[in-house]
Amino acid sequence: MTRKTDFGDRAPALPGATEGAAWQAPSGLAAEGVSGMDSLLEAKLWRNPCWFAFRVNYAALRYNQPLYDWVRQSYDLSRPEYTVIYSLGIGGSRQASQITHASGHPKNTLSRAIAKLEARGLLRRDTSSGTGRKQLLSLTAQGHDLFDATLPNFVEHERRMLSGITEDERATLSRILAKVVLSSHDWPTEVAGAPTETDKE
């Protein structure tokens, strides 16, 4: 007998799962009821076939939302705009295409963000380095001041989120997540079976 889910009659199978078998939490995950959280959150935490994606998304939302709300209210910067500031503050002079690749934001979204930052005097283009998206972008002195002023809150928020695990656990988590990110070139860029633009015409 198959389990009814929001996905239809069959739960999505994990690699190596037996066809038609009900999904089971990976070995080592605790049972529902130990976190002290509400029942839906516990279900997503402990009885979720997409357990990795949920954990990453949940942590990212709890990190990003308050910080980017603060950046918007304090500095009148959107998330894509601050992404450019952060990228150049961490990585130094970069091309727009490099920021797009490292952030996941669409090219047109970052192009608008870059134009606004340039108009505000927070970044500059090195026109001698090429044309268009090949030009190197750098923070101005004002841009560096903004980055330096905002970075401590980002660092502190992360520190508080990781306060429940040990230094050794943090190092292990960092290595594992880095390994996941480094394998991202093998990730699909679209959903299998989704209609293409040609199909929609």
Helical amount? 40-55%
Report the CATH architecture of the domain at 78-179. Answer: Orthogonal Bundle
Question: Given the C-alpha coordinates, what overall shape results?
Answer: globular
The largest sheet is: 3 strands, antiparallel
Spell out the CATH superfamily of the domain at 78-179: Winged helix-like DNA-binding domain superfamily/Winged helix DNA-binding domain
Number of strands: 3
Spatial separation of the terminal alpha carbons = 40 Å
Summarize the topology.
Layout: H1 39-46, H2 51-75, H3 79-91, E1 94-95, H4 96-103, H5 107-119, E2 123-126, E3 136-139, H6 141-161, H7 167-182, H8 197-200
Antiparallel strand pairs: 1-3, 2-3
What does this molecule look like?
The structure is a single chain. The chain has 201 residues and is mainly alpha-helical. It has a domain of 102 residues: Winged helix-like DNA-binding domain superfamily/Winged helix DNA-binding domain (Arc Repressor Mutant, subunit A), CATH 1.10.10. The protein is 54% helix and 5% strand. It has 8 helices and 3 strands. The chain has a 3-stranded antiparallel β-sheet with strand order 1-3-2. Helix 2 crosses helix 6 and helix 3 packs across helix 5. The longest helix has 25 residues. The N terminus is likely disordered.
